């Protein structure tokens, strides 16, 4: 399976590979837009949890549109926020909230060795 994924990712576009590198660059990564209310809520939630994500504001990035296309290809989600923990796609703000309520986000944070304040 790992070889299959490697083959898939080795044939992806330059922009998709860039997004994959960004996802791997930090334990918690959020693709966001500066004016998006759901992004603001997700950032506020993570701040209360004392989690410091790497935030990529796609509306401020030169390659922002290409990043959004690559994210859609990778996640089938074309909205922001688009959140990853330990390289695992969490989803958007609603998914973050549901994952916190179920404990799935906390578990993913623990598995990724990210310290956090549990707000559940």
Automatic annotation (TrEMBL):
SUPFAM superfamilies listed in its UniProt record: Thioredoxin-like
Chain ranges passing through the membrane: none
Record carries keyword Electron transport: yes
GO biological process terms on file: cellular response to oxidative stress
Keywords, comma-separated and alphabetical: Disulfide bond, Electron transport, Redox-active center, Transport
Superkingdom of the organism of origin: Eukaryota
GO cellular component: cytoplasm
Pfam families from the UniProt entry: Glutaredoxin
Xref: PROSITE patterns: GLUTAREDOXIN_1, GLUTAREDOXIN_2
PANTHER family named in the record: GLUTAREDOXIN 2, GLUTAREDOXIN-1-RELATED
NCBIfam families on file: GRX_euk
The protein's name in its UniProt record: Glutaredoxin domain-containing protein
Source lineage: Eukaryota, Sar, Alveolata, Ciliophora, Postciliodesmatophora
